[in-house]
Design goal:
CATH topology: Rossmann fold
CATH architecture: 3-Layer(aba) Sandwich
Shape: globular
GO biological process, one term: methylation
Organism: Streptomyces antimicrobicus
Strand order of the largest sheet: 1-7-8-6-5-2-3-4
Number of strands: 8
GO molecular function, one term: methyltransferase activity
CATH class: Alpha Beta
Keywords: Methyltransferase, Transferase
Largest sheet: 8 strands, mixed
Distance between the termini: 64 Å
Order of helices and strands: HEHEHEHEEHEHHHEHHE
Number of helices: 10
CATH superfamily: Vaccinia Virus protein VP39
Structural class: alpha/beta
Pfam families: Methyltransf_11
Radius of gyration: 19 Å
Length: about 260
């Protein structure tokens, strides 16, 4: 017998959403991955520098996987959310990285020209002037970011049609313009739209609890009717399909 709506809701409401590990969704949701392989590329870049900073590291999972046994002599990471700071500290300290708790706003708590490499995966905000400031001449910013209208099929299911300026936000062309305005040279830019499937309503609830900016103020109680309708739709028609937007950007500070 398939799990009931109430069972799926209770399960998804009670599970922890600490960190940036989405393994709870295994078998319940699937997301096509970008073709470039960010973590593997990040690992190669970390192995080639003497100092690196990972901004908005989350729970440190991606950075830890990229470092392996080959991180740079100086490795730092920043994070603002206290549960993530604790998790990243436990994960990254054994790898020789220091985790700095700091708000996601300027200034970065480091001196000028401190790092050969600055990285970030899915940053919420990007302070290009600060990135340029802490990079050494010849240094690189390397980032995978969420692109425009990502998973908007789900967003608009709950919020209704969004205006064009909202749908266009986080466009890679804007990132290129902002990087250049900060004095950086963009040397690589790639973007893809990728298929995402939610196989049960628990996966939807978990996702929206974890990625809190997708449907601001989301609660099960406040959206219960729409959640039940979506549950019935998934039960009768199959997975709810959305599309994520991802882009990769690499920018260099002139020597």
């Amino acid at each position: 017998m398939a799990p009931t709506f109430d069972h799926l809701v209770s399960e998804a409401e009670s599970v922890s959403v600490e960190g940036w590990d989405f393994s709870w969704l295994d078998g319940r949701a699937s997301e096509q991955r970008p073709s470039w392989g960010y973590q593997k590329m990040l690992g190669a870049k970390l192995a080639a520098v003497r100092s690196a900073l990972d901004v908005q590291t989350g729970g440190g999972e991606v950075l830890a996987g990229a470092v392996g046994a080959g991180g740079p002599p100086l490795l730092a990471a920043t994070e603002s959310w206290p549960p993530n700071v604790d998790k990243a500290t436990r994960l990254l300290h054994p790898l020789g990285a220091v985790v700095v708790a700091t708000p996601d706003e300027p200034p970065l708590p480091f001196g000028d020209e401190a790092f050969d490499l600055v990285t970030s995966r899915h940053p919420v905000t990007i302070w290009w002037e600060e990135i340029a400031r802490v990079l050494r001449p010849g240094g690189t910013y390397f980032s995978q970011q969420v692109g425009p209208a990502s998973v908007f099929e789900l967003v608009e299911y709950f919020l209704g049609p969004q205006p064009e300026e909202v749908r266009r936000a986080r466009h890679p062309d804007d990132a290129v313009a902002d990087a250049r305005k900060a004095g950086l040279e963009v040397v690589d830019l790639r973007s893809e739209r990728l298929r995402t499937e939610f196989h049960d309503i628990g996966a939807v609830i978990y996702f929206l609890r974890k990625v809190i900016w997708m449907v601001p103020g989301f609660t099960v109680a406040g959206h219960r009717d729409r959640l039940r309708e979506l549950h019935e739709r998934i039960e009768s028609e199959g997975p709810f399909v959305a599309h994520t937007a991802r882009f990769l950007i690499e920018a260099r500070k002139p020597g």
